[in-house]
Design brief:
- The protein is α+β, with helices and mostly antiparallel strands.
- The protein folds into three domains: 135 residues, Immunoglobulin-like; 100 residues, Immunoglobulin-like (Sandwich), CATH 2.60.40; 55 residues, no CATH class.
- The strands form five sheets. It has a six-stranded mixed sheet, with helices on one face.
- The chain is elongated.
- It starts with 5 loop residues before the first helix and ends in a 17-residue tail after the last strand.
Length: 339
């Protein structure tokens, strides 16, 4: 007669020992994970010849186990012994035929962080245990980026750091950002609590003496994920969000100076443009005194050496000096013109 209770049958089989395989895996909260339990010799199996159990130890009760899910010979599907794993723990019947008795665990929670034991027995071998695997599941969750608020306006500076929804329990540090040194633990008071999701929330309060230049940061360390999150900017108690090291007086002065600097820049550019324009005009159209008949000399030179240099129409060097521009841009002076 076959026992109807999977727990009772498992108790009867506990005395049969097999070599235990062990492995350790990690999963994030809310993810799906596969707990491996594979027969090493690659045999195929008849499901009617198998008894398969996945179990965990009951917290606070030594040598007491709770069945997560199981498969009994002759069943058409797997069953569940622990309501916490109902609809979350699953065995694949097709995979078990190939010697793969792995557990598919959905929507991992912090309570899943424990050791899972896989036990496989064969009925044809007088319920001999052919496989035993222990899988240690470590659960982790990312903390939120720490946010620092403060400082207060008292003689003593008070900063508050908060971070939420992480796992496992974190380490909390306060650092001096000027030299990245750790501040004394005696200056801080940290509270770590579990929320409704089974994840950790952190609140840490730092109290230090006021200093003209103070720049501190809060660091949340998740040891399992090898992750350090350090606060960026500090949320001031007045409601503004500025870096701790910023001086509000300097901000006001910068706000006043900015339009003045803009006006000065415009004036400098305008003066530079005016000077450049005047210089170009004087270069192209120089003022000269009336020289009588010599004013007609450039026209005569067009038929000489200057006319032969068509590739360079703007310059000509000779005994009379330099012609600075085409004659059409600078008309000859009349006899009655004044400077």
């Amino acid at each position: 007669m076959r026992p109807r209770s999977p727990g009772l049958l498992l108790l009867l089989l506990c005395g049969l020992r097999a070599e235990i395989q062990e492995e350790e895996i990690r999963a994030m909260v809310g993810s799906d994970v596969l707990l491996s339990c594979i027969y090493p010799e690659g045999n195929t199996f008849d499901l009617n010849d198998l008894y398969v159990y996945w179990q965990i130890n009951v917290p606070g009760k030594r040598n007491t186990s709770s069945v997560v899910t199981y498969y009994l010979s002759g069943n058409s599907s797997a069953g569940h012994g622990n309501n916490h794993y109902k609809d979350r723990a699953r065995l694949s019947l097709d995979s078990m035929k190939q010697g793969d008795f792995s557990l598919h665990l959905h929507n991992v929670t912090p309570q899943d962080e424990q050791k899972f034991n896989c036990l496989v027995f064969r009925k044809s071998l007088e319920l001999e245990k052919i496989l035993e695997v222990t899988v240690t599941l470590n659960v982790a969750a990312n903390y939120s980026m720490p946010v620092v608020s403060g400082p207060s306006q008292d003689e003593e500076l008070v900063f508050t750091c908060t971070s939420t929804d992480g796992y496992p329990r974190p380490n909390v540090y306060w650092i001096n950002k000027t030299d990245n040194s750790l501040l004394d633990d005696a200056l801080q008071n940290s509270t770590v609590s579990l929320n409704a999701r089974g994840l950790y929330n952190v609140v840490s309060v730092l109290r230090i003496r006021r200093s003209p230049t103070i720049d501190v940061g809060c660091c949340i360390e998740n040891v399992l994920l090898h992750q350090n999150l350090t606060s960026g900017q500090t949320e001031m108690s007045t409601g503004t969000k500025d870096s701790i090291t910023e001086d509000p007086v300097d901000d006001t002065q910068d706000a006043v100076n900015q339009p003045v600097l803009s006006i000065l820049a415009v004036l400098v550019v305008a003066v530079a443009v005016a000077v450049a324009t005047g210089w170009l005009c004087r270069r192209r159209c120089p003022y000269r005194s009336y020289a009588g008949a010599q004013a007609a000399r450039p026209e005569l030179e067009l038929t000489g050496q200057f006319a032969r240099r068509e590739g360079d129409p703007w310059r000509k060097r000779g005994s009379t000096g330099e012609l600075g521009a085409p004659l059409s841009l600078c008309p000859p002076f009349s006899a009655g013109a004044t400077r």
